[in-house]
Amino acid sequence: MNHLNKNLFYPCSGEDFYVPIQKCWNDVEHFWFVDPRYDGGPEAFAPLDVKKIMRRFLRRMNCEFVASSQVTLTGLTRKGKRPYTVQQMSYVIRSRSKNSPQERTVHFCRGLGFNALLSIFDQTDRTLDIFYYRGDSSGEGGSGFYWLDWRLSSVLNRLNPDGFIFSDGSNARSYFKFKRDGSVPTAFVYKKWRIEPVFERSHGRRLSRQGQEVMGTTMCWRIKRFAE
């Protein structure tokens, strides 16, 4: 993939931002992380301090801060046409590496994932190139939003041709899940798309809001759309 103007979108991301940025740094210019807990959110869960997250990230990635901005995204929900808001906090960062001095922009969006998706991609000329989603669940602190199951068409319709999905099988159709015998998922056809695994890589684990380990091996899938 060419990295220029590429966008990675990760709903329900929590503090799982380091690995996606590290692994996709050379392929993506804009990273979009969405979670209701960023700098606030539902009272039932502890808020995530975005500035603290960024300070820790800059140290770990050997990057430096360049600039920041904050805007409010607005729109109407698809169902019910109710108004919504998403708070977007953006940070431009630069690698200190002499061999890789590129700048990247990391966006933290406080709000619901599908609302953010509508504002970021449907209301602009931005392209969705990588959909990153893992470590979520249907309950017990999870979003209960089935991005890669009954919302799969919503994701695929917005992905660029030859786009990518990273998934550990969370809230996903059975095709995305590793088999009980440990075998790797295989390519499959869903409506007008062919979805094929590119590689598998264990990206470590993270804790759920209840302190349970919720993430296993993450698979990368390439999307091929049939000609219409």
**SS-based class:** alpha/beta
For the biggest β-sheet, the strand order reads: 3-4-5-2-1-6-7-10-9-8
How would you state the average pLDDT, rounded?
86
Which parts are unreliable, with pLDDT below 50 for 5 consecutive residues or more? 204-214
Shape assignment: globular
Taking the alpha carbons of the first and last residues, their distance comes to: 24 Å
Number of strands: 10
Task: State the helix count.
Answer: 4
Elements, N to C (H/E):
EHEHEEEHEHEEEE
Query: In what range is the share of β-strand residues?
Result: 35-45%
Gyration radius, rounded:
17 Å
Helix fraction by DSSP (H/I, runs of at least 4) = 10-25%
Describe the biggest sheet? 10 strands, mixed
Give the secondary structure arrangement, pairings included:
Layout lengths: L6 E5 L6 H7 L5 E5 L15 H12 L1 E14 L6 E13 L7 E8 L2 H10 L5 E6 L18 H5 L2 E9 L20 E3 L2 E10 L14 E9 L3
Parallel strand pairs: 1-2, 1-6, 2-5, 6-7
Antiparallel strand pairs: 3-4, 4-5, 7-10, 8-9, 9-10
Describe this structure in a few short sentences.
The chain has 228 residues and is an alpha/beta fold.
Describe this structure as you would to a colleague.
The protein has 228 residues and is of the alpha/beta class. The protein has a domain at 7-133. The chain is 15% helix and 36% strand. The chain has helices spanning 18-24, 50-61, 113-122, 152-156, and strands spanning 7-11, 30-34, 63-76, 83-95, 103-110, 128-133, 159-167, 188-190, 193-202, 217-225. The protein has a 10-stranded mixed beta sheet with strand order 3-4-5-2-1-6-7-10-9-8, with helices on both faces. Helix 1 (18-24) links the parallel strand 1 (7-11) and strand 2 (30-34). The radius of gyration is 17 Å and the shape is globular. Mean pLDDT is 86; it is low at 204-214.
